[in-house]
Amino acid sequence: MKTSKTHLLTLRGVTRVALGAGLLTGVLLQAQQPIVIPADHAYPAGSGDAARRGFVGKVHVARQSQSFNASIGRANAQLRGELIDNTLNPPAPYLNLVQTPEHPDPFDPNPVAADGTFTNTTVINYSINAAPPNEPLEEGLFNSFTGHPDRRYPGLPGWTDDSYSVTGNVNAFAWEEITWLELPQGLITIGANAYDAVQIAIHRNDPRDLFRQPVVWFDSNAGLAVRKAVLEVQQAGVYGFRIVHTVFGGVSAQVEFFTADAEDTQRSLVNDADDAAAVKAFRSLTVPPRPYVDSVSPGIAASGVAENAPIEVVLVNLGAHTSVLKVNNSPVTFSSSTQGNRTTLTYNPPGGWGGGRTVNVTVEYAGAVGSWSFQTRTGQKALVVGLSAGDTLIAQRLASQFGMDVDNLPEGTVSANSANNPDLEAGKAFLMQYKLIWNSEAVSSGSARPYINFLRNNDLPIPAVNVEQANVADWPLGSGGSQVAGNVYTSIIITDPASPFAAGLSGTVQIVKDGVTSGTWHAPSAVPEYAFGLLGTALNEVTPAVYGVLAGTDTGSYVHPTRRVQMAIAGPGMVANWNENGWAIFDAAIRWVLNLPDEPPRFNPVTREGNDVILSWTGGGTLQEASAVTGVWADAANQANPQRVPATGTKFFRLRR
């Protein structure tokens, strides 16, 4: 007997909103509306130390043979010494091969301190040509032709390897600078003209805080472009900012940090002493700094955490400030130890957390609040390959919705532990511990290719979802692919509502949040004849959105031993901007590739547009309606998903399957 499943929704006028699980959101930002900077973020006006103008920075350069894609997650890990080079024995953080006083370029020195740190007393207007002799590019908005000559990034070009015999390395660097900006009250544009990935973030206490808030964030390869936001500063004062930047390996680089009026008609380099309109930047304050969070453990959105793992929070400059630690919304008693200006808060859970549990943590300190969650071990492991903002959200989704222990690793680490492992069986075992692999758009395809080829050549039956267009032929899930962008890639024309990836959706479906006007897909060049369940196309009616291959599919050169999926709609910037439809399609793809039972029908939260509400759902099913909750129920004349419903009167809806 087939069991029917229902999910009930009531609409009364325009005020009723359906209850439902909140979707994870991301922050891949180029703000369209002003971002409010609250008054409590301000230090007193005039509190920047006038004797210490400028920025404090750090730069890290990995060996030239390492190819990285551009992502802020990778840059942050690299700068913190958390990015592991598996070619070292034993594996260890990548060596920093910048020029230093010990290892300057004898012919063209540009050294920073041994740990990669430096002081910048002028402006952020850096560029460097990837080709020797690695001169500044003199391009962009500010250059010699406009009276603002470019400078090379501090410490670059770096050394190609630890023999320190050849410089010219601009291949795999990450760069950051910290500053305190004197901002007026009102609207102001802040931005960066940069190659590839860049982020500008603020925090009320200190821009080094782990819980800083991005105001500008572009997280992919895209060449030179302006990324900006308009800030609504509620109180004149001094505010802490951090800018971080990296590029795709092997290309020239540039970054310019500027502010402008609200209309962005007159731009000035931050801290330009020759420009009266320029915002002043300071390396330190004349008032006591507020404390900030340096690290937390377990990490933000960590999964696969041991059931008895303690919570640790490391605060800098806590001093006499009090702190509060909450677990699952309840204050807990913790121990505290201080060394120098670093204070560690530790909480050990009595009796442990239990398996497969989500633990929500909040720390309060000197007016700031940091919140995060982690999930304890379930034993079902997934591998997310790539370190972009979208990959973080994918890892969170796999943990929260599918109960998976997720390892989020760069492609070089995955290839080093599998294809480049001198022990063949150990290489196989490394990959076989995972029940699912996600190969992101943020990978360097050349660095991911070894592990994919190893998986294929050894016929490892691991379900996988591929996004990266340059790896389509490696799996193989087609003959090749390309990156495509434009307004036609914000929606899908669902040509097969019966596709396992349709998630109950039909017709033309928007997959990104309102206000996002352009999308980028990593699309296969053509749909192969062996594709299964093609969902549909972009609005151009050509570019395929999502399809799979079944276990046993013969591509002509390879027989897939398990299900796999090609997911074009997860291209650069897409995941962080998906709406509930995008996530519903993702969930459906994961259920299909893992051969999980169908999701029960469930309404999404209702949204209002004018005098209508938008009704949508996941999990399939037939939409029924009635004038009373007790019935009589009948199939709705309109089965479109999503659909508009006039926000008048009272009506009850349910999904039945």
Describe the structure.
Strands 3, 6, 10, 12, 13, 15 and 18 form a seven-stranded antiparallel β-sheet that branches. The protein contains six helices and 45 strands. Helix 3 packs parallel to helix 5 (445-457). It has 657 residues and is mainly beta. It has four domains: 6-20 and 604-656, no CATH class; 35-282, Jelly Rolls (Sandwich), CATH 2.60.120.1560; 305-375, Immunoglobulin-like; 381-593, Class I glutamine amidotransferase (GATase) domain (Rossmann fold), CATH 3.40.50.880. Mean pLDDT is 91; it is low at 1-5 and 10-31. Helix content is 10%, strand content 34%. Strand 25 (358-365) and strand 26 (368-375) form a beta hairpin.
Per-chain topology:
Layout: E1 6-12, E2 35-37, E3 55-61, H1 72-79, E4 84-85, E5 92-93, E6 117-120, E7 125-128, E8 158-159, E9 167-169, E10 173-183, E11 186-195, E12 197-203, E13 213-218, E14 224-233, E15 237-246, E16 253-260, E17 267-269, E18 281-282, E19 292-297, E20 311-316, E21 323-327, E22 330-331, E23 335-339, E24 342-347, E25 358-365, E26 368-375, E27 381-385, H2 389-402, E28 405-409, H3 411-417, H4 424-432, E29 436-439, H5 445-457, E30 464-466, E31 481-486, E32 491-494, E33 507-510, E34 519-524, E35 536-537, E36 546-549, E37 564-567, H6 580-593, E38 602-603, E39 607-609, E40 612-615, E41 617-618, E42 622-626, E43 634-635, E44 643-646, E45 650-656
Parallel strand pairs: 2-14, 27-28, 27-29, 29-30, 30-37
Antiparallel strand pairs: 1-45, 3-6, 3-10, 4-5, 7-16, 8-9, 10-15, 10-18, 11-14, 11-16, 12-13, 12-15, 16-17, 19-20, 20-24, 21-22, 21-25, 23-24, 25-26, 31-34, 32-33, 32-35, 36-37, 38-41, 39-40, 40-44, 42-43, 42-45
